Amino acid sequence: MPNDPTEEWRPAPGFEGRYSASTWGRVRRDSTGRVLKPGTDRYGYLYVNMAWNGNKRHQKTRRVATMIAESFLGPRAPGMDVNHIDGDQANNRPGNLEWLTRRENALHAYRLGLHKLHRNLGVKHGMAKLTEAEVREIRAAEGSNREIARRYAISDDTVGAIKHKRLWKHLA
Question: N or C: which end of the chain has fewer CB within 10 A?
């Protein structure tokens, strides 16, 4: 990898002269040529800590994908986020990145089956107490929420949320 002619480096916008981003999805300190070792945030995205003047007070944490996208795709337009086309958050090569709106990005994640909220819906959710058939029965049931809740051993607030489609929204 070191000194590979296929890896292109460009200045990282906002950090010109200090840091550069590469076509391999890496970030380096320009003064030393050292490639930074990324960490992983709680959402699974790679990030790097960048300091200048040898002072940790002047430190900035940035997502690697954002730095690569800004360096190779151009500046971020208002309301746009970086999307990983293949869904792999560790693949920060410019060809795998694109700018999308937050909505478009969420739809892309849903289509790839990456969105956690959509993977564990209904009975697949680890804390589900009801089946889909029971939810349909609750929606069609007559009587007070308290009476219905007792029949299914759930709270009357849960019954209301099911009837108003705040819970189990994915069911017709």
Answer: C
